[in-house]
Amino acid sequence: MDDGGDGARPVAPARSGTWQAAVRSLPQVWRIEDRRNDAFSAVVTFVLGWLLLEVGLVGIVQAPFVAEPAEPWWRVALLGVGCLLILVKRAHPILALLGGVAVTAVDIRWGGSLAITLVLWDLLYAAALWSGPRARAWLWGAAVTVAVLGSVAAGEAARDVRQFVYMGLQLGAVLLVPMWWATNVRTKSELAELAGERADLAAREAEAAARTADLERQRASDLERIAELDRHEAVRAERAAMARDLHDVIASHLSTIAIHSGAALALPPDATKDRAALQQVRGSAVASLDEMRSMILLLRSEGRRDDGADTARDTVAAPGRLAGLDALLDAARATTTVTLDDPDGVATSSLPAAADQALFRIAQEAVTNALKHAPGSPVTVRLARRRSALELAVHDDGAPGTAPPVESPLSAGTGLLTMRERADGLGGTFAAGPTAAGGWVVRASVPVADLPIERGHA
User: Fold this and answer.
1) Fewer CB within 10 Å, N- or C-terminus of the chain?
2) Angle at 294 between CA 291 and CA 295, to 5 degrees
3) C-alpha to C-alpha distance for 351 and 456, rounded to whole angstroms
4) pLDDT score, position 7
5) What is the Cα–Cα distance from 94 to 341, expressed in whole angstroms?
6) C-alpha span between 412 and 415 (Å, rounded)
7) In this structure, what DSSP letter does residue 173 have?
8) 3-class SS of residue 69
């Protein structure tokens, strides 16, 4: 007889099928083990029942319909039939129970025995454990009906309440106890399976969350690499532009050297003119070396920083020199009022190429930022000399609401950083921030020694 601990492995019914379908869905190894357990249960029940028959625990039913006791071997054969039904109780629990009821009816006809009662217990337990919901409902109804009717019949026959109670307890122990036991085991198994399903669902959700987090980290890493590549590309483009500017300046000075030296060689020897030509050649050579040294220092500074440059080349096609500042401001005047304040004539004076280009690019970026972030606001550009330095200030008044904002799709968001790096690369200073009146000001100072320096043109 099964007691929940013989390896029967009861499980909860499948949501979309019957209890038998859930059992059939178990792995093959489980089904083999279950068949072995059923065979073991049948053998144990047969041995135990045979011992009870040998002891003489028969004739437990006293009723008029009881026939003459059968031969002992007939009882053993009947017990064998009941144990064979135990072998199929898992696959066909209701059919096995009906067969067990028939065997029990024959045994009661012969006076009944405790051995067949054990078989009926086992089959009732199996039917309540492995049958479907509707079959269980009918089974409970039938068992309760038989228990009640049998108790009432016994009480009426004996005209004694005690017989009613005794029969009710006996029928309840035989019919209802194994079914109650199976129901309890089944409920616990269903709860355990439900807890396992919830644990599996939680594990899957945790795994999905971990995969999502990994994807997010990978996406953030990819975006960071893309941004770094964009910065590197901007640095390379800016340094290429500086190299072109350096080429123009050096070519201009070399052309001056070639012209003066060629003129001196073409004329008859003249000490005064030759000396003046040599001085001019030396001055151009020294200026070229100064220009190259300043530009190399600036390029090295840009390379160490390795940051992007958000220049405003889209504002105006300028040559990268303060000489082109008027063209830059003329383009800006198409959208707002721009004033150039240059009392010292810095824009038209001869300046070292590195300082000239740095101031122009800072002015270009500052004006572009003013047009983007304060559209319609008047802009003032000031240039001044302070001892051995040149100062640049670009100021706007804010003026919110005078024009719609302009967003540049090519902006990398590194304009202030680029302007600061240009000034720092030449040993200068840079500052930018809001004013008390609500505008914005950009100030840059670049050291320039030995002003003025002769300026050539390529």
Assistant:
1) C
2) 85
3) 10
4) 42
5) 106
6) 8
7) I
8) coil
State the first-to-last Cα distance of the chain, in angstroms, to the nearest integer: 110
- Detail the DSSP E strand segments found in 224-373: 338-341
Per-residue buried b or exposed e for 92-103, using 16+ beta carbons within 10 Å of the residue's own CB: bbbebbebbeeb
One-letter amino acid of 373: H
Contact 135, 127 (CB under 8 A): yes
Q: Which of 134, 452, 440 shows the shortest CA–CA distance to 290? A: 452
User: What pLDDT score was predicted for residue 216?
Assistant: 92
Residue with the two structure tokens 């009926």: 120
Closest by Cα among 121, 108, 47, 40 to 79: 47
**pLDDT per position as a tens digit, 348-361:** 888 887 788 888 88
Contact 108, 61 (CB under 8 A): yes
141 exposure class (CB count in 10 Å sphere: 0-12, 13-18, 19+): exposed
- Please report the beta strands in 237-357, taking only residues with DSSP state E, as ranges in sequence order: 338-341
Distance, in Å, from the CA atom of 59 to the CA atom of 34, rounded to the nearest integer, reads 34
Question: Which residues does residue 302 pair with via DSSP β-bridges, in sequence order?
Answer: none
Share of the chain above pLDDT 70, in %: 73
Distance of CA 33 to the CA centre of its chain: 43
**Tens of pLDDT, residues 241-250:** 666 666 656 6
How far apart CA 90 and CA 8 sit, in angstroms, is 9
Q: What is the pLDDT of residues 429-447, one digit of tens each?
A: 999 999 888 889 999 999 9
Sequence-distant (6+) residues with CB within 8 A of 351 are 322, 359, 390, 448, 451, 452, 453, 455
Rounded Cα gap, residues 302 and 305, in angstroms? 5
Q: Is 308 left (phi over 0), alpha (psi -120 to 50) or beta?
A: beta
Quick one: which of 280, 290, 301 has its CA closest to 352? 290
**Mean pLDDT, the chain, whole residue set:** 75
- Please report where in the chains the tokens 């609401």 appear, as a residue: 401
pLDDT for 36-94, tens place per residue? 888 888 888 888 888 887 887 776 666 555 566 666 778 888 888 888 888 888 888 88
- What is the rounded distance in angstroms from the CA atom of residue 444 to the CA atom of residue 339? 18
Residue spans of beta strands (DSSP E) within 122-198: none
User: What is the Cα–Cα distance from 267 to 271, expressed in whole angstroms?
Assistant: 11
Cα 357 to Cα 62, 246, 315: the distances in Å are: 123, 10, 16
Name the residue among 122, 108, 120, 44 with its Cα closest to residue 75.
108
Residues 271-291: what's their mean pLDDT? Answer: 73
Least confident of 70-74, 216-220, 222-226: 70-74
User: Who has greater pLDDT, 274 or 423?
Assistant: 423
Asked if residue 458 has pLDDT above 60, the reply is: no
- CA-CA distance, 307 to 290, in Å (whole number)? 26
